[in-house]
Specification:
The protein is mainly alpha-helical. It has helices at 6-21, 28-35, 39-45, 49-60, 64-73, 80-102, 109-122, 127-142, 152-169, 179-194.
Length: 196
C-alpha cells in the first residue's frame, strides 16, 4: 500500500510525466492514473493543470524563488558576488530542468495562450524571477553595494536570460557548461558592470 500522501504522489507523477511527454501532452487523467488516484482526487489538491505545473516548478525543481525572496528581505547579507553566483547556479539548474517541461507549450499556440492566462491569474510566470532579481538588486542599491546608476532590470534580465539560454542552447549538444563554473563566471561578469 502506498504510504506517501496523495498530494505528493500527484506532484511526483506530474513532474515525471511533464519531463517525459511534455506539459502539453501530460493530461490530468494520465497524471491521476500515474499517481494511483482518481482525477477528482487530483482536483481536490489542484484547481487546474496550470496550478499543478506551477507547484511542480516550485516544489520539484531547484528553489530559485525562495532564494530571491530571502535575499530581497535581507540585502547586505553575504557578499554580492556570492549571492549572484548562487542565484545564477540555482537559475541555471532551474531552467535546465524546466525547459524540457515547458518547451512543448510552444508547439500549440492556443494551449500556450490558455496556459499563460492561467499563470497570470495565479501571479506566476517566467517574468517573476526577473522582477524578483531586479528587486534584490534595487535593495542592494539602497544598501550601497550596487551602483546608483545601474539598470537593475537589465542586469536581472541579463543574468537570468543567460541561465535560460544555457538550458536551451546546449540541450542538443550534450555539452552543457557546468552549472557551478558557469554561475561563477556569469556573476563575476555582471558584478563588474553593477558593483558600487
Amino acid at each position: 500500500m502506498e504510504r506517501r500522501p496523495a498530494r505528493v504522489r500527484i506532484l511526483d507523477a506530474a513532474h515525471e510525466l511533464m519531463l517525459t511527454v511534455g506539459l502539453a501532452r501530460a493530461t490530468t487523467k494520465e497524471i491521476a492514473k500515474a499517481a494511483g488516484c482518481s482525477e477528482a482526487a487530483l482536483y481536490k489538491y489542484f484547481a487546474s493543470k496550470e496550478e499543478l505545473f506551477t507547484r511542480v516548478l516550485a516544489e520539484r525543481l531547484p528553489r530559485l524563488t525562495p532564494l530571491l525572496s530571502s535575499l530581497i528581505d535581507e540585502p547586505g547579507r553575504g557578499t554580492l558576488e556570492g549571492n549572484l553566483t548562487e542565484i545564477a547556479r540555482q537559475a541555471a539548474l532551474f531552467y535546465e530542468e524546466s525547459f524540457p517541461i515547458a518547451a512543448s507549450l510552444y508547439a500549440e499556440t492556443q494551449l500556450k495562450r490558455r496556459h499563460d492566462e492561467a499563470l497570470r491569474k495565479l501571479g506566476a510566470g517566467p517574468h517573476v524571477p526577473i522582477e524578483q532579481l531586479a528587486a534584490y538588486l534595487r535593495a542592494e542599491q539602497t544598501a550601497g553595494r550596487v551602483r546608483k546608476d545601474a539598470d537593475t532590470f537589465a542586469a536581472a534580465s541579463l543574468l537570468l536570460g543567460a541561465c535560460a539560454q544555457r538550458a536551451f542552447a546546449y540541450d542538443a549538444t550534450g555539452e552543457r557548461p557546468d552549472a557551478e563554473g558557469f554561475a561563477a563566471r556569469l556573476a563575476r561578469t555582471l558584478l563588474a558592470a553593477v558593483a558600487a
